[in-house]
Amino acid sequence: MELAVWTYEGPTHMGALRVATAMRGVHCLLHAPQGDSYADLLFTMIERRPGRPPVSYTSFQQRDLGRSTADLIKEAARVAYERFRPEVLMIGESCTAELLQDQAGSLVRGLGLPVPVLPLDLPSWSRKETWGAGETFHRLVRALLKSRAPAPGTPHPARAPGQPPRANLLGPIALGFRCRDDVTAVSRLLAAIGVEVHIVAPLGARPSDLLRLPEADFNLCLYPEIAESTCAWLERTFRQPWVRTVPIGIGATRDFLAEVGRVAGDKAVATAAARLIAAAVSSTTAGLEAAPAEPASKSPQAVPSVVSPQLAPSLATAPFSEGQSLAIPVYQPRLPWYSQSVDATYLTGKRVFIFGDATHALAAARIIDQELGMNVVGLGTYLREQARPVREAAHQYGLEALITADYLEVEACIAASHPELVLGTQMERHVAKRLGIPCAVISAPAHVQDFPARYAPQMGFEGADVIFDTWIGPLMMGLEEHLLTMFRGDFEFGESLPAAAQDPQAATYPPGVSASATIPDLAARSQISTPGINLAPGLAHEFPTAPSPGSPAISSGTGQEGMTAGPSVAQHALSSQTANMAANESAASAPVWDPLAENELKKIPFFVRGKARRNTECFARERGIATITVETLYDAKAHFGR
Amino acid sequence: MSLASAPAPAAAEELQRDFPVVCEGGQRQAFCGLAGIVWLHRKMQDAFFLVVGSRTCAHMLQSAAGVMIFAAPRFATAILEERDLAGLADANAELDRVVTRLLERRPDIATLFLVGTCPSEVIKLDLHKAAERLNQAFLSPANANQPIQPIQSQGLPAVATPAGRPRVLAYSGSGLETTFTQGEDTCLEALVPDLPTLPPGETSLLVVGTLADVVEDQFSRLFAELGIGPVHFFPPRSSRALPPIGEGTRLLLAQPFLGRTARAIEARGAQLLAAPFPIGIEGTRRWFDAAARAWGLAADRVEAVLAKPAARAGQALARYQPLLAGKRLAFFPDSQLEAPIARFLQRECGMEILVAGVPYFDRRLMAGEIALLPEGIRLVEGGDVDRQLDAVRAARPDLTVCGLGLANPLEAEGLTTKWSIELVFSPIQGFEQAADLAELFARPLTRRARLRF
What we know:
The complex is a heterodimer. By secondary structure, chain A is of the alpha/beta class. Among the domains of chain A are: 136 residues, Nitrogenase molybdenum iron protein domain (Rossmann fold), CATH 3.40.50; 156 residues, Nitrogenase molybdenum iron protein domain (Rossmann fold), CATH 3.40.50.1980; 138 residues, 3-Layer(aba) Sandwich (Rossmann fold). Helix content of chain A is 47%, strand content 10%. Chain A has a 5-stranded parallel β-sheet, with helices on both faces. Chain A has a 4-stranded parallel β-sheet with strand order 3-2-4-5, with helices on both faces. A 4-stranded parallel β-sheet of chain A has the order 7-6-8-9, with helices on both faces. In chain A, helix 8 links the parallel strand 6 and strand 7. In chain A, helix 1 crosses helix 7 and helix 11 runs antiparallel to helix 12. Chain B has a 6-stranded parallel β-sheet with strand order 1-12-11-10-13-14, with helices on both faces. A 4-stranded parallel β-sheet of chain B has the order 3-2-4-5, sandwiched between helices. By secondary structure, chain B is of the alpha/beta class. The relative contact order of chain B is 0.13. In chain B, helix 13 packs parallel to helix 20. The longest helix of chain B is centred in the C-terminal third of the chain and has 20 residues. The chains are: A alpha/beta, B alpha/beta. Strand 1 of chain A pairs antiparallel with strand 3 of chain B.
């Protein structure tokens, strides 16, 4: 029995629904009790899907259990087939249904429906959502293609002369992190080096498209959690090689291009890829106004057409049917130059905590370390299946990877590592908000605000620039940091409340003096929100009132912020929590601050004051110093360095 | 003020009115009773809800609640694992371990609810027995001889159990047995045996059903002005401050989904007052009238107290009536609030109700509503979601009230929708909230009329 407060992953059938919802022409019958249909709202609300997910539920109830649920399943399958006429009918069972052992898959197969019936049989008591998604995709591909497998040892058919290399993009699914835009970004990248996108799957694909997967020359495994087992099976069965590098970040995109160049087995592609790799580097020195590199593609005019109808997930209504078609022949990334520009020096050595699915966490660690020059102080994933690569990467940074699905454990680790930036899922966003640390979401599970209206890929050179903006945005800019130091103490510069938010013990200013009045931009951007001045401290731990309006289901973003005292409540709650914790701690082994030292501490900019206080107290405790003087403060500073 | 000797005239003729309700089966689009935890844990802030179920339960609760600003919320899921399914002995031992650890970490918990789920029911994990066992375990020797203090019949600050001793109770939020708001019914029903007894000869009014604190306070003030009292609210804000019940209890339901709780309280001698639910000006007025009749108050006295808030509500409501009048409305079954809200929108806002889907129809509880519902309104119990969608597409109402899973798809088809869940989470009862309730329906209409692309 596992005690779960918030969970990173839903059950396995949720993964199956993410695959089915991403596709077209598939329907899923889920044998599940009333209540399990909540799954629908994740797609319609969080991803704002304009259509219902392709799923029917048997909705069995207590009274059905007395009778046989078999009839219910058969009837639901017949009705679902008649109504939706899918190309493939998938049969899933929720946790409860699995206990009933109704053999829903066999029952439906026995109906003789005129379409393939695919029982999923996902073990819902031992595995979770992400695994369920990967497994569903794999089983679907295998079920459709098994009969077409050539004799073992048959080589992959050679490309027709004049035919450019073709690649399948595998892995993007519904509710995935920026999958929609990644597909566009990667397709443009491939177009620039003369590779055609053959099939994108699961996102936007029909079962009939999956039948054509083997026609491609190779596969791109964009999200290993979802597509790795399928890519491996296609390689074994159809001798299709696959590209393993995930192109997130400048270095990874260059590696990806190089790998595509090798795997495509085409000289022109390899040359074009090499040119594109060089162009990305050249932008480093060329700076802002770098001239567009010479068109590397053999056929630059093919770029817009890369957004094939296949790419645009064909849901009937507007938001999902538009393809992104910015016709930029060769995209010159700005991240390398921006990161080299002097303003970015303030990023150097900033402490960053990273947690998410393996794909995004690993990519983030590399970008943080190599491309932004910050320090990875925590790295982990909630996916046990992906523990190995994450552990290996963590060792490179001298860390022990955090492999856990326990949200409270992650929170404790974040608090303990005192990061200056958190990159994580929506869970870590909440943690960071409570701790008053800037944060950017990099991975599923994500919330409604992480499905932006604008084109915001993570992959390719375009994605790297999006990443620069979204990760650096929450941090304070370099020059701003210095100006703050310079103006600190100016009577018109109210820095009190941000200080209170970060370091409750340092709050010496009367409440009601709002820092945001003087530096709203800073307060907003650094996400050091000011404690709600209208809140009684006693309310801080709880919601201000009973049932409140707003969307409960998409809460963390809109719901929470829409409430009267949303984020500030959290902030405030935390402040008092940490204050209590700090108070308990100091009661145990408390070094006392000499008034002069306390005064000196206030001269330190508020955004590092908390750290300075902690470090000094830690320094004092270790040495048995009872009273912290100005001397102790500077001794500690010298000891810890910046 | 003493209680009128003759019981309030139960609306016998209303009960007898035969109201046609169509009952349909098929695929449901509704939450299970676990969703009730979302508001119950906010109401009783010293209670903790431990769901004993699967990863699906945890995920559902998180998706429905989504209020993740809590670091450690007052609810959690004990997720059953393969080991627990293999042997019930192990599952019970595991449950004891999880509960003990939880209570060690959260000593502030006064009442721990073990919440049953579909899987816990299917494997026949007896949570009521588990609750008894755990209560014995937590009855520490220090507390064992201490008699449980009877609660004061007034004021309610008294503590029902010795301090520091958490009480463990069990109820079912399983989708096999409960739908959405019914989770509150099973939860409150589980609390009823612990309610202290109202001493013979004393009378009191018990208002049953979770209300927003602001609404509860408004109602308290009006009851005080009327001279009706003592008044207790159930569930209470503290799970230790349980109201007393007995022969002298007059029961007034604030929510339409509490049939089991009402019966359990009636079994302890309480008398249910027949009234519509306090939704809209008319509903609220009749709801107070029912209490006033039971207390034998003179009509002019009641009028003197209620006329002013009713008039103010009328003034506020007038702003929305032109926006709603004549508009055609359809309800998907969701919260059980459909019938009273349909009555309000039809009678007080002039809307035309095409169909009101309800998860189930409890004729006894709805007696006061049936009397007010317009002739010819189509009430459908249960129903298949795909067929309901067909019907709505064909009828194309001006406004469709539905769950979150259906709202965006219907909007994408050009139908204007109102999320039904907001009706459960927002304060909508009472005079002061009548206009707020109308505004919830006017907003989507105004928005659609405003947007130009």
